[in-house]
Amino acid sequence: MKWVLVTICIAALAALLGQRLLKLSEIALANREVPVKRLPNCHILKNIEYGAEDFTILRDGLAIISTGLKYPGMPSFSDDPGKIYTLDLLDPRLIPVELTIKGDLDRDSFNPHGISVYIDETDKTIHLFVVNHPQHYTSQVEIFLFVEEDNTIVHLKTIKHDLLHSVNDIVAVGVESFYATNDHSYPSEVLHMLSVFLGLPWAGVVYYSPGGVKAVGDGFLSANGINMSPDKRYLYVSAILEHEIAVFEIKKNKDLVHVKSVAVGSLCDNIEVDRVTGDIWLGCHPNGAKLAVYDPEDPPGSEVIRIRDVHYEKPVVTQVYADDGSVLIGSSVAAPYEGKLLIGTVYHKALVCDLK
User: Fold this and answer.
1) Which of 149, 199, 235, 327 has an alpha carbon 20 to 30 Å from 251's alpha carbon atom?
2) Are 264 and 232 in contact (CB under 8 A)?
């Protein structure tokens, strides 16, 4: 009888293991291939060689770009510190300009990830928020003052907190306040991978302000990109491993109430929002297995998805751009401006195309 029970237990564990491995393959979209769908007049930007993982576009068409991310589990092709660039989308030359970093910041360990800006309406100063991973598995948020006329960012403050243990992206809501996503359930990579393997949705969103820090949204296997509606009433979060965009209503006390989730059919990374139309633009990974295990003979592709009418009963989800990796590898962010589409990547280059 003892050996019968042992055999049953082994068979049950083997069945569970097989089921979870199959589920992980589905989560990673490991067998997905997307037909190429390109846009006219595309060209690779100069100076961007090792990723443009995130960016934000100011009202005047100036994009601020985070480059050089070294992320655990992802390929990296340079040991140099990360950099911040600007790109004037109204300048026909379209040449990124590196910003000089001033202030008390360890530039040698600067490893920028998600970014956001907050414009103080009292004096029009621009505060740049940057997620930084100076020791790979550590997370902190750097706040800079952006001095456009000098092509400079001045470091003002570093924010650390136990709840900000694996920050991926950020959306600023004040000069020192923001919402941030944790893409790991735990600071430990082993525990996080175990939680994903077991299907435990324990990653989430954190609200930070000088007056307090709190977890405000959970239920994610991995919370990735985050952004806000133009009227500042709603928060959008990429549930990357669920292939969905979660929509939350922001309450007066800064808590979040889940409104809906929109299926996008891809592993969508960062979120940009058209401040005029409210359309959501997503840089996505068609196949997560290819992204993590880089093979130059079969590189990961890129995909850009737009969501229109997100607050209507039936949002319209459209694929705008798709590539098999022959032009652009591992798209992570995309946004339009004045008829152009800017696309960034995790560890490759950046692309600008015409939308028409």
Assistant:
1) 199
2) no
Strand order in the sheet with 83-88: 54-57, 62-67, 83-88, 97-98
Neighbours of 302 (CB within 10 A): 28
CB 183 within 8 A of CB 223: yes
Is 113 noted as a catalytic residue in this protein? yes
pLDDT number for residue 330: 96
pLDDT tens string 269-294? 999 999 999 999 999 999 999 998 89
Q: How far apart are alpha carbons 141 and 19 in whole angstroms?
A: 38
* Residues in the chain with pLDDT values less than 70: 1-22
- Cα 352 to chain center, whole Å? 19
Rg of the chain over Cα atoms, rounded to whole angstroms, equals 20
Q: Is residue 174 within 8 Å of residue 122, measured between CB atoms?
A: no
Distances (CA, A) of 243 to 204, 269, 288, 305: 15, 10, 11, 12
Q: Is 102 exposed, middle or buried (0-12, 13-18, 19+ CB in 10 A)?
A: middle
Q: Residue 179 has which token pair?
A: 């919402």
Q: How far apart are CA 288 and CA 305, in angstroms?
A: 16
DSSP of 148-215: GGGTEEEEEEEE--TT-SSEEEEEE-SSS-EEEEESSSSSSHHHHHHHHHHT---EEEEEEETTEEEE
Q: What is the pLDDT of residue 5?
A: 58
Which of 43, 113, 155, 311 is catalytic? The answer is 113
| Amino acid type, 161 | H
Nearest CA among 123, 54, 125 for reference residue 85:
54
pLDDT 10s digits, 83-104 = 999 999 999 999 999 999 999 9
- pTM for this model (two decimals): 0.94
| Residues near 131 by beta carbon (within 8 Å), at least 6 away in sequence | 112, 113, 114, 115, 139, 140, 141, 167, 168, 169, 170, 180
Decide: residue 119, CB within 10 A, 0-12 exposed, 13-18 middle, 19+ buried.
middle
Give the span between the Cα atoms of 104 and 290, in whole angstroms: 38
Show Cβ contacts of residue 290 under 8 Å, excluding neighbours closer than 6 positions.
298, 299, 300, 301, 325
